[in-house]
Amino acid sequence: MKAIFAKYIPMTDHKPARVKAFDSDGNQVTISWDDDSSYREAADALIKKMNWGPEGTWVSGTHGKLEVFVCTGL
């Protein structure tokens, strides 16, 4: 089973708001946040980056301030 965590990173004086998706193995991707962005887009970007196939079903939930995505088929 594979899990992806996604968290919102607020804007700073030097960077815009963004969303970071990461897993427990240290794989990560960060995307810009705008009104149309979502945690799912960040998770999808990490799935694509890692070339994890379409097998299984990704389900999501929350844990504190994190959005968590778990694949039931990897």
Describe this structure in words.
This protein is mainly beta and about 70 residues long. It has one domain. It has one helix and five strands, in the order E-E-E-H-E-E. The chain has one helix at about 40-50; strands at about 1-10, 20, 30, 60-65, 65-70. The protein has a five-stranded antiparallel β-sheet with strand order 3-2-1-5-4, covered by helices on one side. The longest helix has 11 residues, at about 40-50. It starts with a strand and ends with a strand.
Short overview:
With 74 residues, the protein is mainly β. Helices cover 15% and strands 41% of the residues. It has one helix spanning 39-49, and strands spanning 2-9, 18-22, 28-32, 58-63, 66-71.
| Helix count, DSSP H or I runs of 4 or more residues | 1
User: Which percent bin holds the helix content?
Assistant: 10-25%
Radius of gyration from the CA trace?
Answer: 12 Å
Global geometry:
globular
Instruction: Name the average pLDDT.
Output: 90
Record the strand order, biggest sheet. Answer: 3-2-1-5-4
Q: Termini separation (Å)?
A: 5 Å
Main β sheet profile:
5 strands, antiparallel
The sequence of SSEs as H and E is EEEHEE
How large a portion of the residues is in β-strands, by DSSP E?
35-45%
Derived from helix and strand composition plus strand pairing, the structural class reads: mainly beta
Q: In oligomeric terms, what are we looking at?
A: single chain
Instruction: Pick out the low-confidence regions.
Output: none
